[in-house]
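B., you asked whether I could sanity-check this one before it goes into the benchmark set. Here's the sequence:
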Amino acid sequence: MCFKKKPRINNKNKVSFIMSYKYNGSMIQIAHPVQSISVNKHRVIFSDTQGLKNALFQKASDARQFVKWLKAS
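And here's what the prediction gave me:
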């Protein structure tokens, strides 16, 4: 698991941050702020400034850890 913050200016001159979460060799990109989070065992669906995104995890504990990281960042 790792993350990177990249500042970005969107069309409305608001600064948003894109962070990356590495899971099993793939990167999940999050463009803060996150508006909503939905969790169902192995799947986490969240809405950020880029739209609705879906992340699937092998274990429910991995999904919980991702949500914990997502809420803290």
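One thing to flag: Residues 42 and 63 are 6 Å apart (CA to CA). Otherwise nothing jumped out at me.
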